[in-house]
Design a protein that fits this description.
By secondary structure, the protein is an alpha/beta fold. It has four domains: about 180 residues, HUPs (Rossmann fold, 3-Layer(aba) Sandwich); about 90 residues, Glutamyl-tRNA Synthetase, domain 3 (Alpha-Beta Complex), CATH 3.90.800.10; about 150 residues, Ribosomal Protein L25, Chain P (Beta Barrel), CATH 2.40.240.10; about 130 residues, Ribosomal Protein L25, Chain P (Beta Barrel). Helix 8 packs across helix 9. The chain is elongated. It starts with 15 loop residues before the first helix and ends in an 8-residue tail after the last strand. Bound molecules: adenosine-5'-triphosphate and magnesium ion. Adenosine-5'-triphosphate binds next to helix 3 and strand 12.
Amino acid sequence: MAHDPKTSDAPKPSNFLRGIIERDLEAGTWTPRRWGGSPGDGAHHLAGAPDPARIRTRFPPEPNGYLHVGHAKSICLNFGLARDYGGVCHLRFDDTNPEREEQEYVDAIIEAVRWLGFDWQAHGSSHLYYASGYFDFMVRAAEALIDAGLAYVDEQSADEMRAHRGDFNTPGRNSPFRSRTPAENRARFAEMRSGRLADGAAVLRAKIDMASPNINLRDPALYRIKHATHHATGDKWCIYPMYTYAHPIEDALENITHSICTLEFEDQRPFYDWLLEQLATLGLLARPTPKQHEFGRLNLSYVITSKRKLKALVDEKIVDGWDDPRMPTIFGMRRRGYTPESIRAMADGSGASKTNIWLDYSVLEGCLRDDLEGKAARAMAVLDPIELRLTNWDESFGAGHIEPCHAPAHPQRPELGTRAFGLGPRLWIERDDFAELPAKGFFRLFPPRTLPDGSVVPGNRVRLKYGLVVECTGCEKDVDGQVTAVLATVVPDTRSGTPGADAVKVKGTISWVGMHDALAATVNLYDRLFTEAQPDAGGRDFREVLNPHSKRVVAAYVEPSLAHVAPETRLQFERHGYFVADRVQHRPEAPVFNRITTLKDSWAR
Ligand code: ATP
Ligand code: MG
């Protein structure tokens, strides 16, 4: 049976981050740290007790959209490492950019992380934090840098600044404002804060080295003017910290030990270290300061994970919202039917490495099957129904008779009980379980044939699963030649579970539901959203490679045992795959199921 990757003590695949943490723990790198009971500056933490968390990690989303499968990877990694090494993982909203952030996203992110199975309660407190809660400290730190001659207010235009920055081959040139005194800089920074300057009129920059081979060290911007209302701090501020300045400070105030981020931040690490070193030297932060470690992004084939592009899919109504079951958002995957366990298994199984990885979508499907194989109740469903009429029913059983049938809810788990349904003279079967002219190797229903020598080959016999054997005798067609019903006769004494059941050998078994007791259901058959494995590769517009068949809605029939399943119940429809009762639309009187994934082994023979 599938194990729960969150609680199981099965060994986790090793990765370089585990290696770093294990070496740190062995060396006692982080033992000197003290924790003031909440995020704070150096003095606050030094006044506290030794940090009860052996390590601290964080998941730091910007609340500017819904989380997707790439974020799930980062969540599982950060929360998972903290859990495995006696640490704590913080959920921190990196809400330093007032223009793109909304409360709606904050709420959705909290719900998504919880749903994935993680929480941020530890040592008696909640470790959910907002970067905007640190704005006061960030200004104080900026002023300390100014006083130490390590920051200045630059009033060049954006174009001048760009021209002075140089490029990979050319060193930058100093700004004419670079030699301002600390007192002048303090006054100009106060002016920036006062609200009297327009957006872009001035920026606060670190004073490092305009000739550095790393462009990120050529006096990076720390603060900019932005007259904008912030979702949490309202109109209190008109200057906002740059991400590269804010992020290391957020980590340090929260006593983070391992600040794990994706590879594109590698070039920022020297500035991360520079900034924290200066602020520790100035006495604002406690040592040891956090260390940044980069790992490769997770990409899934046939999936895009850029928030901007996902938003375009929603805004342009290519999908039905952020939780459309085809979306790689955590809400979309949830609605599709993926379990938290399957997503965690995929994330854990994909490890962490120093290169961006492409994971085949089938890996996620495999994780889902592994999880549900042992858990999901079985049911019969007919997705493309055609009538099967048993023409000798009345002679065999008597008119109006319904033969009671039973099946285990799960073949290996008797404790889940049995399903009951009735076999009658009129059934729904899959249209493709009948072939008027069978291809070679087709073992399901086909009618009798007369050979050229005049002899007759009888129609084929199949077992109706959990029922009995029937022999095909023909079909009915409409004026267009479309088959409207398949005809068959009951073969006597072949009832499943009776001594005679095996007397008649058949090569095919088909699923069915009884017309008298089946429930009509809407079934959404989802497929990948794109026809190319890397939809936006090489700058291609993903709209060019949309799969026109990514959603097919069919009117299906399901067995009566599903009359009372709750939304989000996951099932295996025998031979079709795993399905979930849609968490939004499913009603007992109007069932709606989404296909999560097909079964690995193909049923058709
Ligand atoms: P964008 O830059 O499009 O807004 P982002 O993916 O950088 O999106 P954040 O909210 O900053 O969004 O991400 C939060 C965390 O999730 C970051 O630490 C980021 O590195 C991580 N993350 C995002 N996408 C992936 C991915 N595909 N694989 C692994 N980690 C990811
Ligand atoms: Mg980002």
